[in-house]
Structure prediction request, 508 residues.
Amino acid sequence: MSMNKRETALIIGAGPAGLTAAYELLERTKYKPIIFEMSNKTGGLCQTVRYKGNYLDIGGHRFFSKSQRVMDWWLKIMPIDYSNSKKSSAMLIRQRKSRIFFLSKFFDYPVKINIQTLKGLGLYRSLKIFFSFIKSHLFPIRIVNSLEDFFINRFGKELYRTFFKDYTEKVWGVPCTKIKADWGAQRIKSLTGFKTFTHSVRKFIFRTNDLYQKNTETSLIERFLYPKFGPGQFWDRVEFLIKKNEVKIIKNHKVIHLHSKKNLITAISVLDTKTGKETKINGKLFFSTMPVSELILAMGKKVPEDIKRIAFDLPYRNFITVGILVEKILIKDISSKSQFKKLIEDNWIYIQDPRVKCGRLQIFNNWSPFLVKDSSKVWLGAEYFCNDGDELWKTNNQKFSKLAIKELEMIGIIKESDVLDHMVLKVPKAYPSYFGTYNEFDKIIEFTNQFENLYLIGRNGMHKYNNSDHSMLTAMKAVDAIVNGDLSKKTIWDVNTESDYHEEKKND
Ligand SMILES: Cc1cc2nc3c(=O)[nH]c(=O)nc-3n(C[C@H](O)[C@H](O)[C@H](O)COP(=O)(O)OP(=O)(O)OC[C@H]3O[C@@H](n4cnc5c(N)ncnc54)[C@H](O)[C@@H]3O)c2cc1C
Prediction:
């Protein structure tokens, strides 16, 4: 592809992937990037919502990557503040602590086989876990068909039922027997019961200081970077930097149509969501981070029926978070001497309790003290997962807040009378799911790959459970391919698959 100074690269979406693509294009090519964003904000799922001086992170975003390239990128844009100065724009280094709240007690996550765990579980349950763990290693399930099989082979049936089943089913809304084992393979990678154990020993002996934690499995990462005012602050900074270089980010503009000729995309049509006006814009390169199902729909009549069917039935999970400001939390922490601490150390807690619908609880004070206006109060995020038509999704915000507060009171985390304020945030398509027509997804890859100048990147953009580092890497790989004149999209689709491990060896 020739590179003419005037040629434009049109980017759909100003989330991490779209913004990274613009930044990389600007640095390394002569293309002129223009981003179209349907909302009035940049950052996508990584934006931070401001509420009466408090900051709500949509989910709690750890800035951690096994890719050195991404770590360097983050730190180049926002260096670490070692001096603890008053500088408002800086990365903090945070200690990760997240535990499972089960039987109204805390258990380490990732699960550690230690005295504390055994004490919390009691002798009978501990023995059952021990024997089922041994059994799963002596007689593993040979043909791993589902996520349940995957978990049982790694942790044994009892440990799986105690610590993984309820939360996982809340996130995905279907039994683990109906979820493909791929999800576990991608998310938990090679983490096994033995690894959680050996990790505890290694950490005790070596006490590593390596921020990159290259030899640590993804679920075991113990420190992470975090912008003082949440992930949105980082992406606001990227927005500022690229705009300074005259990149246009056109907000409140939704891409509704992609025009094509043979194997090239030629233009997009965008809808001004404020005025309803539609405009057609020509471009040379196209990057899409919009959900694949919506992209295929926007590609119009030329798309084969079979591809439309697969795209239309791709499933997603929605996400609801309830910001709750409380005077204090009441949690009996078995690892602490005091029974009622104002604030425990966890960044987040997995709620493993089928009596409540809440799946996870964020304690934003522990992500960054700057997220909370008044440090004497506790700023929580009660998280729920649901589908579009679900009761939870349809419940109005006032009722939803009440439900969250009642649930947290029921499991003994807060007292309703301590609640000072609350707000609800609903996020559609937060999780691309790996069921429904996902098993035919290769056909979509093949179809979209035919368009030489179209790059699917990011999380929903590729219908892949990508964290922000992976989403950014896909954008970087796309620009690599353009710079190298590589027409294959393989390196982009390879991000966050097993081949990641080969890339890491190259320090990518
Ligand atoms: C609950 C939760 C917790 C997470 N935790 C972490 C974590 O700890 N660490 C981590 O690294 N990552 C985490 N992630 C993942 C991270 O948020 C995503 O990987 C990342 O935001 C994906 O970036 P993206 O640009 O691909 O997509 P998005 O962030 O979804 O951005 C896409 C953008 O495109 C816009 N858009 C969509 N359709 C159109 C259209 N037709 N026209 C114009 N604009 C459009 C959207 O409005 C949006 O702004 C988490 C995600 C969730 C949901």
Residues 12-18, 36-39, 44-46, 58-62, 254-255, 289-290, 294, 319, 430, 458-461, 466-469, 471 surround flavin-adenine dinucleotide (CB under 6 Å).
